[in-house]
């Protein structure tokens, strides 16, 4: 079994609630060590971010977050 590095940066898609101030939430992301906003989405209120995996639960439990998922490649059949 291989050990995982909990500080590894991973890419996530964060979808925000409609009531969230997107600029304020961006500041929340940028206040986390080694976290960054990679892309802001136009079709929904949210971001693609890079975040140390140790901070995933911080955003997952944030009251402004509707959902957060690891960004992965999607394939069609």
UniProtKB/TrEMBL annotation:
Q: Which domain of life is it from?
A: Eukaryota
- Domain Inhibitor I9, by residue range, is 11-76
Pfam families in the cross-refs: Inhibitor_I9
The protein's name: Inhibitor I9 domain-containing protein
Q: Which organism is it from?
A: Pichia kluyveri
């Amino acid at each position: 079994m291989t050990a995982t590095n909990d500080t590894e940066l991973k890419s996530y898609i964060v979808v925000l609630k409609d009531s969230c101030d997107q600029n304020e939430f961006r500041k929340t992301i940028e206040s986390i060590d080694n976290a960054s906003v990679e892309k802001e989405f136009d079709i929904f209120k949210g971001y693609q971010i890079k975040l140390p995996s140790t901070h995933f639960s911080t955003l997952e439990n944030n009251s402004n977050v509707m959902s957060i998922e690891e960004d992965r490649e999607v394939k069609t059949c």
